[in-house]
Amino acid sequence: MTQALPVPSPVAVATAASRRFLPLLPLLPVLPVLALVATLTLPVSGEGGGTVADAVSGLVVLGCALRLVRDRRRPLSRTAAVVFGLPVVGLALATAGAASAGAGAAGLVRYLQIFVLVPAAVMLLVRDRRDARLVAWSLVGLAGWQGALGVHQYVTGTGASYRGEMIRAVGTFGSTDIMGMAAVVSFGLVCALGIALGSGSARQRAVAALCALALLLPLALSFSRGAWIATAVTCGVQVVLAGLRRAVRVFAAVGATAVVLVGGFGVGTAMLQERIGSITQVADAPDQSVTDRYTMWTAAVDMWRDRPLTGVGLKGFPDHRDGHASLALSSGSDTDGAGAGFRRQPLLSPHNMYLLVLSEQGLLGLLALAGSWLALLVGGLRRLLSARRSPEGADCALIACGLLLWQLVDFVYADIGGPSTVLTALVLGLAAWWALAAEGAGER
After folding, report:
1. 61 vs 58: CA distance, rounded Å
2. Which residues on neighbouring strands pair with residue 166, listed in sequence order?
3. What burial letters (b/e) apply to 249-281, b meaning 16+ CB within 10 Å?
4. How far is C-alpha 256 from the geometric centre of its chain's CA atoms?
5. What are phi and psi of 185, to 5 degrees?
6. Starting at the edge strand that comes first in sequence, how are the strands of the sheet with 333-337 ordered?
7. How far apart are CA 70 and CA 85, in angstroms?
8. d(CA 215, CA 388)
9. Helices 394-410 and 129-156, packing angle to 10 deg
10. Over the stretch 27-80, which tens digit does the pLDDT of each residue have?
């Protein structure tokens, strides 16, 4: 006679399931931040307006607010409140001076999202170094995914148009946001290099170093001069801060890789050399994109001179552009390829974040917004120098400060706009966590 098997009780089943998912509970607070990164793996329509990433960024802020209410704790320290409150002052004045209430309100919401609300939420949701490393690896994974798509686009001729050929690597961002993949790959490269220069296990550092080297190829194929410059500056600073001896080895490895990729395999040799050479061609026969950029920079400065303190108002640059730009400015830039048809994109910003803020928000707005970024950079570097005495936090320091430095350098050649802009908010939040969090918060 067979013996009946005992049937587990519902309580026992629930207990076993809870034990299985118990290790995941510590990750719950940072999961919204990881979800925000994951949304950027999805294709972008290119029609403008809100994106999935924008919606998830709102959920990140909401989740942070609910967590603060549940824990009944003070949301921000006094220093953090001042740093995040500074931009609000300039934004309020610029909104009041906007040409239309609708445009001013739309600009205010966007600026608050990118520079105040989402960064503050990320700072509070990233609790310790384990969370920061998890976010960094997620950025490396995102960069690897977008970079692989970009290389495939270059090889198969299915990318965005560049000099009449569909070879520009843009990932899932399409031809209307050609800077999107370049920014994502750059962020991943900076994170990978920070991990490789840290004090983790030898295996982890080796994997991170290989990821950083692999991401050089899609970054080159993005043909984004601004991203190249920002990445070169940031990685150079990261390597030097990690130690001069290590800097020599890293620079030698990067140089050897560049020689193999460009010299040995001939990866985009002619076009890459032409693109790199165009960086310095400002006065001597510059291409039209360089001419347009410097023309819009001049127009932005002229707008500021008209209203030096408060600027022309949020979203006011397009309305005042033609009245201040010279005839050298073209009507727009052509975009084509990567799954989209030919389109003429109007030039609605100076492609320089500092000049955009200066023209629309005036000197008061620029001092407030750039002052908050400078405070994050100074605070982050101060903690980085102290972290060098304790190698446990060196990787987090290099990642947070590196990401912020990359963004600040890239702002010389770009401004906010496009689906990848939410990553700017994440970068500022991660930098704020490192620079402004309580000393004990980042020790775990």
Report:
1. 5
2. 161
3. ebeeebeebeeebeeeeebbeebbeebeebeee
4. 28
5. -65, -40
6. 165-168, 160-162, 333-337, 340-345
7. 24
8. 27
9. 50
10. 677 899 999 999 999 887 655 567 888 899 998 999 888 888 887 777 788 888
